[in-house]
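ugh ok fine here u go
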Amino acid sequence: MNNSWWAYMRSDGSKPQVTGVLLRRVWRFATPYRLQIIGLLATIAVISTISLVPPLLFRDLIDNALPNRNATRLNWLALGMILVPIVNGLVGVAQRNLSSQVGEGVIYDLRRNLYDHMQRMSLRFFTETRTGELMSRLNNDVVGAQSAVTGTLINIASNVVSVVAILIIMMGLEWRLTLLALSIIPLFVLSARNVGGKLRDLRRKSMEVNAEMNALMNETLNVSGALLVKLFGRTTTESTKFSSRAAQVRDIGIRSAVLGRWFFLFLGIASAFGTALIFWLGGHLVLRDALSAGTIVAFGTYVGQLYGPLMALTNAPVEFAQSMVSFERVFEALDIPVEIDEREDAKPLPPADGKIEFDHVYFRYDGDEPAGLNEVQRFGRRSSDSTALLKRGKQKEGDADEPTVTRIADREWALENIDFTIEPGELVALVGPSGAGKTTVTYMIPRLYDTTKGQIRIDGHDIRDVTLDSLADNIGMVTQETYLFYDTIRANLLYANANATDAAIVAAAKAANIHDFIMSLPDGYDTVVGSRGYRLSGGERQRIAIARVILKDPRILVLDEATSSLDSLSEALIQEALSRVMEGRTSLVIAHRLSTILSADKILVIEQGRLAEMGTHAELLAHGGLYAELYHTQFRSGQLPVDALDLA
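structure:
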């Protein structure tokens, strides 16, 4: 079966396989709970054994106690009938406790591993992954994996033990009737072959359409998505789209329920047919005095107990494969390579002086492998489906939830042969047309992306040779899209430095020109900013972001100075705060104001991913190149004051 534990043939001829590799990987997550699993198996054996006692009590009652009018024996049999469910129930409580420890432990380990792995993903991963699909892996699929451990696997083990034990007892009671009972098994197998594979397909499809529905909800029910929907009047369109996806979930649920009911109806009829045969033949044996009445009653009870587990075991391959789909989807996410990872010998970056070197840096967004979280490739799945999903992931560029990174489809390199040096304490301005690659340059310094070719060094250290935490400690970024957590202003500021004192928080807020505004709020620093900080204005969010960077106190600053969408007062406050925070630090600024460009020690002009020009304002004007063209075009328009010229 080609490295598989078993394979179950579907109606289309394909074989959904649960491989040994998959099972061993699942077992690695269960290994920490092996003592609980041993105890769980013991409780299964005890419960299965105790459940076989009542038919023997009935047999003794009919064949011995009642015919012989033995009151003492009758009393003991009645007591045994009371004790059986009590003991069974107590052991069942222990079993539930153990199964919960295993199931909840596994779900915790899976979630923790998956979340930790996602935290290590590169920025490219998140730009090519729908958040709703990611949430589906962390929630629905992990819970599905838990149900496999606490439900499916326990049921399979219980049913196997029950079937074996019942058959042993039945053979001891009457071997001919046992063979007759087993003759019905082909009916169970036939029904499973015809219906079981379809149920598995529906389960997998249900998980996929649920992920699609979750993705839509995540994209349209956050602040940015809801705002976009309302601004473009697409409420009805989005509701219709959601209704369509929800209808798919509903329809698959109905089909699964009805098909499953037909499946168990057929199995129930087969079971009734077998039981009727047993009572018919056994009754004739009783009439001929070849079998006692108590034996046929006990045997009939065991037949009923046999067919239940047999029905479950007949469908066990399908149910087990369904449960393994959840593990498969979780492992698919865990198996996505970490693009940006620490080397084994990585060393902490010492407190930086702030020298930054780009040494012939090349970079392209599209690596050798897709970076996003795609659907698991499964049996019967067309490859074009995955390709289409990949394309959808790559079309998410510019989504409100993601950093804005412009990609130029008709050029191979996002950055090509970028080579420059920033000395400690220098202010360097990045200018150039939209989509030139300015934001990409800034994202390379904290290793949000890694170079395809070339090196980036800080104080002579290749940033790929230092630990990521130490690199982050030395770099502070303020992006154009300010993100605040749904929490208090204090908590958002402490995100930069969890050990900061109240005095340090206030000092940072004052330096960012936001303290007075915060104190004017009813709850001050304990004011909740709302989802993504949308209870605050754009200028207020930016100043809080600046205060957050000040509290971090990095040696290197990377700033997107965009203020074009702000009112003049907010803009002035932000510019004053930025000039204060840049003082004495190495600063790389995507410059949108001429005042910043004029004060820069060096100007880097980026065009089509290349470093087109480099120099001071006067040098670049004298050169008469792209910078001079941008400057004179903006200046001659006469529509903007000199201080607000947008050269980026």
